[in-house]
Amino acid sequence: MSKYLVCGAGGFIGGHLVKRLMDQGNDVVCADIKPTEYWFQYFEENQNYSLDLKEYENCLKVTEGTDFIYNMACNMGGMGFIENNKAECMLSVLINTNLLRACIQNKVSKYFFSSSACVYNGQKQKEIFVPGLKEADAYPAEPEDGYGWEKLFSERMCRHFTEDFGLETRVVRYHNVYGPIGTYDGGREKAPAALCRKIINAKMNNIDTIDVWGDGKQTRSFMYIDDCLDGTEKVFNSSKKEVYNVGSSEQVSINQMIDMIEEIAKVKLKRNFQLDKPKGVRGRSSDNTKIENEINWSPKINLKDGLEKTYKWIFDQIKSGSNTSKYTRSY
Ligand code: GDC
């Protein structure tokens, strides 16, 4: 039985990944900076650590005796968070750096780094409905300030640890991952969850208008969590050492996504466009040609179906009076 370490196990993607690895019968070690009571998904039977992976000693401790590492740990959130916390986002470089050093020390077999579509050159994302971003579009480098620079730098560090020290590394660039058991309030939520929450609140409280950041014409592609895990696993288990997009090529405007959520909610609302709120790039989507050809992976769940599952989960949370902000504050 292989021993997996999931870093960032208390977060959204990390929590789902831990569950999947356990369902497959693996021995899983979990680490996160948050106290365990704030993890989105917590499984007592695993070896669970609440500690700061920015510290090398802690990285040495959790990697000891593990074969495979998934690093999902970073200080992150949607546009509202990453535009206003650039230094915090860049400090995540210490997590990747110290984990890589610990991998060498503890002779780990393979290391995975979760990068982001935020590494892509901003010049290629200036219009709405732009062509999907190909992996090569990350260079020349002009990533998202703060968060994107950290991701791009850390990608390269993985590459050089492979070249110089022979450590097997795998890197993917996620494109806006969403789904149940994730952040939908508190300031770190991304657009799909934020807009589900706003529409649910409007419907429950008989309010006829929702706030939308920007003019609603900006575009993105969104990837459902199950697709994200499938793509992640395929890249991790592949012999290919390239960097791949793991995202959807279903590009929609924010207005089109709101239309879908309104259809799910069976409601039609007015939109108050807030032009002074964080907007990020004007247009972004994933080109999956490379991962389709080389890894034989493409996402299966379309946005409408994924939103339906996400909406239902958020609806149940709000109805039962819970909120996730306690899971998502900074540590
Ligand atoms: O936050 P996000 O999902 O991140 O925002 C997408 C677009 O939706 C932005 O233009 C934003 O202004 C708009 N938007 C409209 N209303 C709202 O209520 C809202 N809340 C939010 N959050 N957005 C709203 C993300 C990063 C991630 C990750 C992915 C990778 O950027 O924030 O950390 O790396 O990219 O693809 P987004 O897609 O810009």
User: What's the CATH H-level homologous superfamily of the largest domain?
Assistant: NAD(P)-binding Rossmann-like Domain
Largest sheet: 7 strands, parallel
Bound molecules: guanosine-5'-diphosphate-beta-L-galactose
Count of structural domains: 2
Binned strand content: 15-25%
What would the average pLDDT be, to the nearest integer?
97
Termini separation? 33 Å
Q: What is the helix tally? A: 11
Rg calculated over all Cα atoms: 19 Å
CATH topological fold name of the largest domain: Rossmann fold
Structure description:
The protein is α/β, with parallel strands linked by helices and 331 residues long. It folds into two domains: 3-177 and 224-246, NAD(P)-binding Rossmann-like Domain (Rossmann fold); 180-220 and 251-285 and 302-319, UDP-galactose 4-epimerase, domain 1 (Alpha-Beta Complex). The protein contains eleven helices and 13 strands. It has helices spanning 12-23, 56-63, 79-82, 86-90, 93-105, 147-165, 191-204, 225-237, 254-265, 289-295, 303-319; strands at 3-7, 27-32, 47-50, 68-71, 110-116, 168-174, 177-178, 209-213, 219-221, 223-224, 243-246, 251-253, 270-274. The chain has a seven-stranded parallel sheet, sandwiched between helices. It has a two-stranded parallel ribbon with strand order 7-10. Strand 1, helix 1 (12-23) and strand 2 (27-32) form a beta-alpha-beta unit. Helix 7 packs across helix 9 (254-265), helix 7 crosses helix 11 (303-319) and helix 9 (254-265) crosses helix 11. The model has no long low-confidence stretch (mean pLDDT 97). The structure holds guanosine-5'-diphosphate-beta-L-galactose (GDC).
